[in-house]
Write a structure and sequence with these properties.
This protein has 180 residues and is α/β, with parallel strands linked by helices. The protein is built from 3 helices and 9 strands. The radius of gyration is 16 Å and the shape is globular. The structure holds inosinic acid and magnesium ion.
Length: 180
């Protein structure tokens, strides 16, 4: 990793303007679907920029909460999901929307949806900014998808490589030189 974050990015996939347009597009759908409001659950830490932008485009009643889970070491999933931080609000009887940065194998979200469903939610849907369909090993239904991408390791706009690059305002492909 160099001092200049941009030097480690091989290609910019989506710039700030692309992302802003996509966030508005997703918010329009959510506003239309959740007239009575929702509980938005952001998955830490990757969803933070997306969640912050998205909720400000949502104009129905919204409660936000966060969960922190992990299954990753470096660039690959360990396959085992652990809850590091649980919700601080009750979601029983609520319309719940999980907000994720990116879905890769689907292991994280298939585990999380089971956990949250078991708490007696009224409804549970998933929203992700990015998805890598070619990498999916678990069958999950994603209700709101920003972009489908190829199997590249991406960083920025919340997404990290070993906790770095989350603060990049755009989404880019990380240069292999950083992890090879
Ligand atoms: P899954 O359980 O394999 O679907 O992995 C989902 C989580 O892995 C995401 O919430 C991200 O935190 C992380 N992840 C997966 N792919 C990438 C990537 O390309 N860049 C950064 N993080 C990723
Ligand atoms: Mg994540």
């Amino acid at each position: 990793m160099t001092n200049k974050l941009a030097d480690d990015i091989k290609e910019i996939l989506y710039d700030e303007k692309d992302i802003a347009n996509k966030v508005q597009e997703l918010a329009d759908k959510i506003n239309a679907d959740y007239k009575d409001g929702l509980v938005a659950i952001g998955i830490l830490k990757g969803s933070i920029p997306f969640m912050a932008d998205l909720i400000r485009k949502i104009d129905v009643p919204l409660v936000m909460d966060f969960m922190d889970v992990t299954s990753y070491e470096g660039t690959t999933s360990s396959g085992e999901v652990r809850i590091l931080k649980d919700l601080s609000t009750r979601i029983e009887g609520k319309d719940v929307l999980i907000i994720e940065d990116i879905i890769d194998t689907g292991i994280t979200l298939s585990y999380l949806t089971e956990v949250l469903k078991s708490r007696g939610v009224k409804s549970l849907k998933l929203c992700t900014l990015l998805t890598k369909p070619s990498r999916r090993s678990e069958k999950i239904k994603v209700d709101y998808v920003g972009y489908e991408i190829e199997d590249n390791f991406v960083v920025g706009y919340g997404m990290d490589y070993n906790e770095n690059y989350r603060n990049l305002p755009y989404i880019g492909i990380l240069d292999e030189k950083v992890y090879k």
